[in-house]
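One such given next:
>
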Amino acid sequence: MSAAVKSAVKPVIKRRVLDRDRLEADIVAVAVRVFAESGYEGASIASVAEQAGLSKQNLMYYFPTKQALYQRVLDDVLDEWLARMDLLADPQGQPADMLRAYIQAKLRFSREHPWASRVYALEVISGAPLYGEQIRRRVVPLVRKDIEVFERWIAEGRIAPVNATHLLFAIWAMTQSYADFAPQMALVLNRKLTARDFAEGEKMIVEMVVCAVSLKGKQIVET
């Protein structure tokens, strides 16, 4: 193959790769909502293909099975979620600033990607039968790393002694509920959640968490 032909082929190959990546991303964007609304068992390749404007055969060229598509959906969700969890990784940062940024990022994920949060929640609620190994391999080490950061802050006297594991559980519950339980919140409010609701929720959660780890006025509660 001549140099001229090679130079002409490279842009074509690159364009094909970009087109494929773009189409796969479009399919995944539709699949997230389908899996979130119907669950893994209730969802089908056919329903995803129809909503994506593709034939079933065309979609299966990119994702041969429902499990392969589901795996890709959860991979993308976890990639995004873990990127936001990295905000606690710097033990030299100011605890209040790190926690505020972490809570802001988690709430932003709930606001921007509610279907992604819900499909992940459904998998976990069902016992993570199809994605448990990936959670153990990718989530658990990062959570342990964050716990080590809390323990270092405690040892250095920068925050009050707290159970870091349960503090993280509480933060996850408070922030993810704005996606997973948004329909219930909408019923209570008699309207959909707004930007103002997320801002007020963020303020409340940050104040609660910072207060929980604050050294000032810390009281010991005996049980």
Summary: Residues 74-216 form a domain with the Tetracycline Repressor; domain 2 fold (CATH 1.10.357.10).
